[in-house]
Amino acid sequence: MKRTFLGEFEEVLLLTVAILGEEAYGVTVTQELEQKTGRVVGFSTVHTTLQRLEEKGFLSSEMGGATAERGGRRKRFFTITAFGRKALREVKEVREELWGSLPPETLQLMGI
Amino acid sequence: MSANNPKSGLAPNRPPAWAAKLLNWFADPNSLEEVEGDLLEMYAYWIKTVGHRKAMWRYVLSVFKLLRPFAKQKRSKDYPEIYLFSLDMIRNYFKIAFRTLVHSKVYSAINVIGLSIGLAAAMLIMLYAKDEVSYDRFHANNPNIYRITFSSFTPKGVLEGQQGNTGYLQGPKFTANVPEIQFFARYREHTNDMKLGTSVKSQEIFQTDPDFFSIFSFSMLSGNPKTALKDPRSVVLSEDMAMKQFGTTDALGKIVLMRDPFDENAKFEPFTVTGVTKKSPQNSTIKFEVLVPLVVKQEEMNDNENWFNTNLNTFVVVRPDANIKTTESKMNRFYAADSKEAGDILAKKYNFRSIRKYALQPFTDIHLSKELNASNGLMDGSNPMFSYILSGIAVFILLIACINFVNLTVARSLKRAKEIGVRKVVGGGRFQLIFQFLGESFVLCFASFSCALLLVIAVLPTFNQLANKALALSYLFDAKLVMAYFLLFLATGLLAGFYPAMVLSGYSPVQTLYNRFNLSGKNYLQKSLVVLQFAIASFLIVATITIQSQFNYLTSKSLGYEDKNVISVDKANLTRAEYQVLKTELLRNSNILDIAPKNGGRWGTKAKINGDKEIDFTYETVDASYLPLLKIPIVNGRNFASDHPTDSTQSVLVNEAFVKKAGFKKPVGELLDFWYNNEKYLIVGVVKDFHYTALNEEIGPEVFTMKPANQYGKALIKIKPGSETASIHYIETTFRKLFPLQPYEYKFLEQENKKNYESEAKWKQIMLFGALLTIFISCIGLFGVATLSAERRTKEVGIRKVLGASVASIMTLLSSDFLKLVVISFIISFPIAFYAIGKWLENYPYRIEISAWTFVISALLAVMVAFLTVSFQSVRTALMNPVSSLKSE
Of B789, B784, B796, whose CA–CA distance to B815 is shortest? Predict the structure, then answer.
């Protein structure tokens, strides 16, 4: 496969799922995103994106056991796949490479 | 599962119920459960963080964003999907089919040959049937064209018979007096003398009425169909006839010279060509080369006794909206009134008392009608029986070919049992296997179909000759027929492939993969199919032998007179004087032994005997030389003789059948009273019965007369054996010299007599073909089954040989199984055959006895053929070295 292309939101979402580990499902991902990035994201957007990422093979999902707090409905837990991890690494490498090739003056100008 | 579950801990903070319902109905069913749960949690979270109002808004907004009203439940993705009709699988079916067929060439060949013969037979019959039913359908006025027919009843109301022919009056009178009838055309055949250059030819012509072309859709090359037959001296020619006469089809206005040979004083008269038509279609009951207006004298039209003639066909066109029943009753009412007076006269004069009821027969029904058939100028009347029997044979052949297919495939299954087992183990479903085997069947069927098409093209001319048809290849490519062939293809493929597919796909994989798996079993199906095949084959053998011997009987049975070296020459209106000249002229040549005159055609009349008993008989006008020339013996009394000058006006001879019918003890001296013209004749001699007509007809009463008023129509000439060429030449020169304006034609009586049995000859050929094909296909099938059985038993044979069995005993072992089946098939087929040929022979008054030998010979033949077929394999197996068959396990 050619170099993976991840959208910004997809990338953030994927990272969030990775951070949450075993506990990643629609609600936790939305809340985590909100808390970590401070931006208000619609639940529907998160849900749709999670599904898309699964279709693309970055995530895999599994239904959890029955729960008491939500009317017995099960949760769909997402975990990042090897392919998803590779994609994240690649994105990071590209960023670092780009950062690394910034001339020092520019870096200074940016105040970093 | 509802969104507002009371158990939920969120009960006091429930989201709006309508939104939850909406979600429940229209969200993507695949993720509904978690979405509902997640949203509930989110709702609780939102209440905590942003308050009730905003939480509700966010909830509703999310619900709307998550609606997927057209999403479908996806099937489980636990296993990869296998589509029955996926392209890959279909390609695979055909690939495997092709490989198996190539791998076992003998079986494929047997199947393809058998099936293609069967299919070809079926195709030909379909072609034939299509042609039969297409007769006369091309007329635009159908279905409103009818023929006037009638049934006659005795005064007591008993049906005497049906008649398709009518007289001069029915057409014009019914058309004038029954408003539903629009046009009429009387139509009859006639023979005219026609000048063709300088020579005179006897030409079959047809006489009809001016509305002929308004009723029938014959396309005209030139001339006006409305007026072509208006003038009594006009003539319409076919393009062929125009070419013959004038060398061009552009014949409008040219003159044809014709004369009626039955009119003594007729001279050649000019007829002007007013139209040229295309050749009459092959599937038409009406086919004409020369068409002239029917001229009926006014006095004939005024004579109401002509109601009772039956000498022509009357066609009418009925208004499309007319009720046929009403029309018929109107016709009968008018007829009853108009013919009453004439009927009374006839009743007095001839004791004619039968009552007629007129009816309308659809024109398109004539071709296949048995009772009201095509006669008097209508062509190609056909017996539907012919179609049935042909179809029967075709179905037999196709059936047998399909049986072969089923038998061979099932028999071969042993070899493929492992393949089936492995397929099942790796997950092949039963339907996939069925499709695989059906695929093979269709590949074979397709190959056979192509062969069959070639075969049809090759045998079409022969078939045409046998079936008396002019079917062209182009008929094959008619949309309906192509459709029918396609159906035939599908039906055959399914018929032949379905059973094996069902059986083979049903094997249990464990059993097939187990090493000692044996499918031999009882195999009732295979056995009964072989029995069925041979039952059909032996039935056809019996039928063929019977028809053959009946045919031989008909053609070789003594007719009671000598027809060898007798030439018959027709001359209409041969007067006594003309005959005398002809006789003296001919007898000058030493090759001509004798000559006798006779009336032309066949006459029949009736007379009273014993005062009041009426008797119908065949009425022959001859002279004293007739009986001696044909070597017909007189059993009682004497022949006509020149020393009895009053013989011609006072004496008749009768045959034995007449004497028997009349019940005379001493026939000589009895009186025949021709009451209707006041003539009485004395019987002077009794002639031994002879077959004056074909053997299909029983010898009936016959009377010979020399009455001078009866005209001769032909002369029988006995020539010296071996002098044919010289005699024919001499007769022709003499005839042309004496009657230069008469058409001349001669016939050998012996050949003419043979011609009476043309239809039997045709049956014979068709049955022979049918029987040969059936036997052939049955045999190749048997061959295949025997081969497989022998292969299966190689080990058994090896062990038997090791233990000391002889080749002969092994051969018996292998062959007897099949011969038993053949013998059983006789038990089924012979009673049916006995019944069927008995029925068929009843059609013949003079017929062979059904002999046991027919069955013995058929049985021997079938057994022999089966034995030869099977023994080829048995011998091979029996001769095999046991070492080679036993060395490997």
Answer: B789
The letter for the amino acid at B727 is S
pLDDT confidence tier of residue B75, bands split at 50, 70 and 90 = low
| Mean pLDDT on B556-585 | 86
pLDDT in tens, B851-869: 889 899 999 988 988 888 8
Do the Cβ atoms of A74 and B37 come within 8 Å?
yes
Report the residue of B1, B34, B68 to disrupt the A interface, i.e. the one with the largest count of A CBs within 10 Å. Answer: B34
Q: Does A49 touch chain B (CB under 8 A)?
A: no
Measured between alpha carbons, how far is B296 from B290 in angstroms, rounded to an integer? Answer: 18
Q: Is A65 on the interface with B (CB under 8 A)?
A: no
Quick one: fold of A8-110?
Arc Repressor Mutant, subunit A (1.10.10)
B331 touches B356 (CB < 8 A): no
Let me know: does B368 contact B132? Beta carbons within 8 Å: yes
**pLDDT tens string A23-68:** 899 899 999 988 888 888 888 999 999 998 998 889 999 888 877 7
Q: Is the dihedral of CA B287, B290, B292, B294 positive or negative?
A: negative
Q: Does the pLDDT at position B872 exceed 60?
A: yes
What 8-state DSSP symbol labels residue B521? Answer: S
Which residues of chain A does B3 touch, with a Cβ-Cβ cutoff of 8 Å?
71
At A41, is the secondary structure helix, strand, or coil?
coil
Q: Where are the domains of chain A?
A: 8-110
pLDDT of residue B200: 80
Contact B37 A63 (CB under 8 A): no
Q: Do B65 and A71 touch (CB under 8 A)?
A: no
- Full-model pTM: 0.64
The angle, 0 to 180 degrees and rounded to 10, between the axes of the packed helices B87-103 and B430-467 is 60
In this structure, what token pair is assigned to residue B156? Answer: 């007591």
Neighbouring CB atoms inside 10 A of B29's CB total 13
| Residue B67 DSSP one-character state | B
